[in-house]
Amino acid sequence: MYFVFDVETVPDFEFVRSVITEPEKENEALLLQASEELAHNKSGFLPPMYHRIVSWVGLWIENNGVPKQKVSWNGEDEKEGLVTLFDALSTYKDFGLIHHNGRGFDLPLVTYRAMKHGLQMPSRMNHREIRYRYSNHNVDLLDEFSNYGASSWPKLKHLGYLINIPFKQTGEGNEVLTMYNEGKLEEIEHYCYEDVMATYIVWLHLKYTVGDISKELFDNLNERAMNKLKEIQDTDH
Hints:
Blueprint: E1 2-11, H1 13-19, H2 27-39, E2 51-61, E3 67-74, H3 78-89, E4 96-99, H4 102-116, H5 128-131, E5 138-140, H6 141-146, H7 156-162, H8 176-181, H9 185-209, H10 215-234
Parallel strand pairs: 1-4, 4-5
Antiparallel strand pairs: 1-2, 2-3
GO molecular function: nucleic acid binding
InterPro entries: 3'-5'_exonuclease_PolB-like, RNaseH-like_sf, RNaseH_sf
Pfam family, one: DNA_pol_B_exo2
C-alpha cells in the first residue's frame, strides 16, 4: 500500500517570535524579517521547522495504483491533527509514501512538530525503506523527475500543464495563510485534497510512461482520477 499525501501549514508565529531579533513586529513584517534571518531569502516562506499544520489529506492506494480510501483532517489543534495522521498511518504495517517535495518539506515538518508536541511517530516512518533517498517505498516526484537532483525540480502545477490537466484551481500555496486568517479551514482541506489528487494523477502518468502499469489499467485509473479531480474543482466552498 502507498499513502499519497499533502500537508497545509501556516507560520508558527509564536515560535518565530521566540527566535528572531525583532519579535514585536506585525505578522507580515515579521515574516519578511524571519525569511531573511531563518531562510536567507525574502519570499516570506519559512523552513519546515517554523510552520504548524492546519490540514492534511491522504489517499491510500494499492501498489498498482488502485485507490482504496481517503483520510483527512483540518483544525486549530495541531497535536490532534498529528495524532489523527499517525493513527491513519498505523492502518497498514509496510506502507510506502508518494508526495511532491515531501522529503524537502512535509516529512521534516511532521518530525519537528511531533517532537514539539511530545508525540511518537509510527516506527515505519523511520524505517530505512522510508528514510533512504533512493527507496522505491518513499516516492518524491521531485526526485523522480529530476533524476535525484541531476536536473531541475518541476512544480506540480507545471507537471499538470505538461499533461494538459488544470491543477491548482482551489488556491495557491501562498494563499493558505489568508484563507486561514479568514477562518476557512474547510477550504484549506479542500485545496489540500486537490493537491493530493494532482500528485496521484502525475504519479499515474509517470508509472505508465516508464512501463510499470499497463495502458488498460492506466486508462481506467486515470479516468476515475480525472473525474474525481473535476468533482473537487467543481465543488463550491
